[in-house]
Amino acid sequence: MEKLNFVKNGVLRLPPGFRFHPTDEELVVQYLKRKAFSHPLPASIIPEVDVCKSDPWDLPGDLEQERYFFSTKEAKYPNGNRSNRATGTGYWKATGIDKQIVSSKGNQVVGMKKTLVFYRGKPPHGSRTDWIMHEYRLVNTSSQSPVEIPMENWVLCRIFLKKRASKNEEENCGGELVARKATRVMRSNNATTSTTSNRPVFYDFMRKENTERERERADLNLALSSSSSGSSGITEVSSNNNQEEESSDDHQEEDSSSCNTISTTTFPYFRRKQNSI
């Protein structure tokens, strides 16, 4: 069977309708592992390029698509394990924690993935760009703890430009976020009102009885005070009546005495005649 070759002049050329979207496991097991052990590849689709010799925008392939390259790691120092990732105008800097690539069948670690970001300038004062690289490497699965294989230092690199949202998309996303926040606030308010409305109401009947008793006691005190004031008023009225009666009797006696004097003075002859008779 003739081997398929889709790389021409270092550029991937696929027939119309074909796309190359492998998974992390397929990149490590089917391509990188075969390349490291000099086994035949499924297809000649990934070119060999030293990615650190050129800037990411100068590498072969379509800049708007993901590009895959086989590359070798160059040691930064003769006796060190650090890789030299400096390019012509910048450098690649690792970010985050390396991710384990696990096989789907035996849940076995078959490789590691490192994420790197391209910076313009010289470290540590470089300016960050939107170029991202995923670097895949093999690990030794013979021992319990995964150890990197130093065989020829082959790695597989996936390089792409991180897309930023346009202003209209950002505004739309911002409006959607505001609407989502508003709906969440409304839901939370409704939930709080429903919980408050559904809460049981407890009445203190003993307190109600105590208040009623206090009211009854207050009414009794008012009645007693009013009755005492009324009795004092009656005694005063009776005393006044007695005084008036005594005064009226005195007046009557005075009137009777006055009448007698008047009769004796005004009718003297009448009394003499009676005596003579």
UniProtKB/TrEMBL annotation:
UniProt feature coiled coil, ranges: none
Biased composition annotated in UniProt, kind: Acidic residues: 243-256
A molecular function (GO) term: DNA binding
GO biological process, one term: regulation of DNA-templated transcription
Keyword field: Activator, DNA-binding, Nucleus, Transcription, Transcription regulation
Region (Disordered): 213-277
Domain NAC: 14-162
Feature: compositional bias, Low complexity: 225-242
PANTHER family xref list: NAC DOMAIN-CONTAINING PROTEIN (PTHR31744:SF93), PROTEIN CUP-SHAPED COTYLEDON 2-RELATED (PTHR31744)
Protein known as: NAC domain-containing protein 29
Native source species: Morus notabilis
